[in-house]
Amino acid sequence: MSWVRIWIHLVFSTKNKSPFLTTKELRNEIFSHIRENAREKGIWLDSVNGHKEHIHCLISLGREQTISKISQLIKGESSYWINKNKSTPQKFAWQDDFWAVSVSESHVQTVRKYIENQEQHHRKKSFTEEVEEFMKKYGWSYISGKLDES
Fold it and tell me: Which structural domains are found in the chain, ordered by start?
């Protein structure tokens, strides 16, 4: 039997960063549904939280799971559920892309705490500021246009 623990901090936003997730009650309802869906699909979702236009997930990948597939399962099913239940006044959608970074076992508690404190965190810093900070911290840059896959 294989034993794997690969922690991933996964972040994705609503389409065009629209503030669909307007109330704490709505966010909690959606996060609760995402937790249940993850459990049903065999996704180890340790933490989920977010703010008006994005969510953070702390997941541990299974030995046959990929970040892309996990993201697709969480985002696809939750947007379907949100629209089916008419949880938002307009048609809901997540942005196609996502942000993911590995987390060492020694930093799991710190990331967990960061995810749990999203309400407080975003009183001081916008999501755009947060993205810019992560981009700078990890030395990433925006890619415009399609990548050449030749």
Answer: 6-138 (3.30.70.1290)
